[in-house]
Amino acid sequence: MRFHLLGPLGVQLKGMPVRVSAHKQRTVLAMLLAHAGRTVPIQSLVAEVWDERPPRSAVPNVHTYVMRLRHLLSAADPRAGRRLVTSDGGYLLQVDPPELDLFLFEELLTLARKALVRKDLRAAEDAYERALGIWRGTAAQDVPLGPVLRDVVAQLTDRYLSTVEEHLDVRLALGSHRAALDRLRELTRRYPLRERLHAQSMVALYRCGDVTGALEAFATARRVLAHELGLDPGAEMRRLHRAILDGDPVLDGTGLLTGTDLGNTGMLTPGGTGMLADTGGVTLDGGDGYRRARRLPPEPSAFVGRRSELARANDVLYGAAPPGSGARVIALHGAGGVGTSALALHLAHRATGRYTDGRLYVDLRGSSPGVPPLRPADALGGFLRALGVPGREVPATTAEAAAAYRSLLAGRRVLVILDNAADAAQVTPLLPASDGCAALITSRTLPATVDAVPIAVGMLDETDAVRLLRLLVGESRVAAEPEAAADVARWCGYHPLALHIAGTRLASRPNWSLRRFGERLRDRRRRLDVLQAPGLSIRSCFQASYGLLTDRAGTVRTAAARACRLLGVLDLPEVGIGRTAALLDVDPHLAEAALDELTEFRLLEPAAGARFRMHDLVRLVAAELSVAHDTPEERARALRRARP
């Protein structure tokens, strides 16, 4: 038999495919293959198939899926069905090493690395070629993934990319610079956060005689890392950049860079090959062998108000705490565009006195529908490199990387900013553990299972909203039209992003009057169009929150999305559970769950007496979404049911 996990999931018997078409059975089979030869507990299979919401019949259903898999294997070969056995409260799939592509890949990779130790580059290249040839796509690419398989796929993808990088090192050493460069151009586009690929591109370009291109490759890598991770290239890339600038002869021609090249650096790949790396801690700002990281985006230039939020955050960051209490963690949460990130950066830029060993920042990309959130493993890799760990020494698994990260921070005073977090699972591995450290989390939804002090960030009051306009537009213009400035703030709903957009537009048009601009905002039909500027849109901000809500299917999410759209059309100051149930034509329990979901995603605000309020700007976006998704008949019918 042959089992395939490195690409589309597949089973073959004597060259003929065994079809496993049911999605949940494929997930179960992928779990068994990922743990081939080991027992997978039934509860692990339940969690993998249904994630956080298993039905009551989950365990019997898993038994059924396994039984059907056994029948599929037995139908192809009666002996094959006996491979899937019940053991110790779970199931085990017996697979011999030559039968699973993952085992074959690992065997060939071991051969390649042994050839490197012998300095037999031709044999190494052949083994790498054969190992990579086993891959037919992304691991388990056609399998619905649960939490364990997502981590397995991430680890396998990292394993694949590390192997590709090692293979490219060998090709560069053999003088195949141009062929390597063609492959590297494709890879750096697909995996822009892999520093080693960028460094290999620099070496390949330099050895092809394109010094300018090599320097441009470094500049491109620096821009990407700064934009995506808030980090600079690591020490090995910077040293390689310096070698290119200096025309260091070690980079000429072919050959592997050795441990004595460019200042006694260590190496990244097995057998002493690969890119330049650190042999020990990189010391900046001191002599203790610890690299102090100060990698923050600029502080917001126009920051107002937030007195109570700042006071509470400062109490946590600077207040007394008993020894052994662990890191201080704050979760700043609020609707899209209210300024949680601005508040976090304002706090971070003023934290140098207490957090003297540095500040680490990462954008976790958890607030952008359609854009995958940053994996904890990638964020940890960036942090470890910023703290002086050579790229090749960064552990591949999230658990090992988190342990190394916390070990480096032990006994230090470092502030970590985790911006735009998606959920608790993404954040937890990135939290420091040391008493002297702290973390600021920003998120639209509160990561409830994280042990953090929650601080809600809402709209500005009228005074601070006008102050923000004054900073953006200019003191003299606001002083000349104080009532018009108050009107602009009111039509913006005192929403910080809306105010920033309004202020940006007014600042770019010094001849516009605030009164005339306020009149344009007053028109509900034009307001969303007025509140957009290059790269900024209040419409996109709330559409993003709606997109996050609809990213996952489910009865409650579907009801919440529909409630959001129809509440925009209903246009009432507040609603309760009963009216929402009438609007959706559902029972009160589902209506209440939908309202709670909308509150969680900051598309509604709780009001007194189990009632809920929708911000005026959210209402306008919701009404547009209803026009796009609901027929006129559906809207009219819902309104008849829910009108007072």
Describe the structure using short key phrases.
644 residues, alpha/beta, six-stranded parallel beta sheet, three-stranded antiparallel beta sheet, 53% helix, globular
Helix-strand blueprint:
Elements: E1 2-4, E2 10-13, E3 16-17, H1 23-34, E4 40-41, H2 42-50, H3 58-76, E5 84-87, E6 90-93, H4 101-117, H5 121-133, H6 147-173, H7 177-190, H8 195-207, H9 211-229, H10 235-246, H11 261-264, E7 266-269, E8 273-277, E9 293-294, H12 307-318, E10 328-333, H13 340-349, E11 358-363, H14 376-386, H15 398-409, E12 415-419, H16 424-427, E13 438-443, E14 453-456, H17 462-473, H18 475-480, H19 482-491, H20 496-508, H21 514-522, H22 524-530, E15 532-533, E16 536-537, H23 538-549, H24 555-570, E17 574-576, H25 577-584, H26 588-600, E18 605-607, E19 611-613, H27 616-629, H28 632-642
Parallel strand pairs: 9-11, 10-13, 10-14, 11-12, 12-13
Antiparallel strand pairs: 1-2, 2-3, 4-6, 5-6, 7-8, 15-16, 17-19, 18-19
Helix pairs in contact: 1-3, 2-3, 4-5, 5-6, 6-7, 6-8, 7-8, 8-9, 8-10, 9-10, 14-15, 17-19, 17-20, 19-21, 23-27, 24-26, 24-27, 25-26, 25-28
Largest sheet: 6 strands, parallel
Estimate the strand proportion: 5-15%
| Average pLDDT metric | 83
Distance between the termini: 67 Å
Poorly predicted residue ranges? 258-292
Large-scale geometry: globular
Our Rg estimate from Cα atoms comes to 28 Å
Strand order of the largest sheet: 9-11-12-13-10-14
Question: Helicity range of the residues?
Answer: 40-55%
Helix tally equals 28
Which structural class matches the secondary elements?
alpha/beta
Number of strands: 19
Quaternary arrangement of the chains shown? single chain
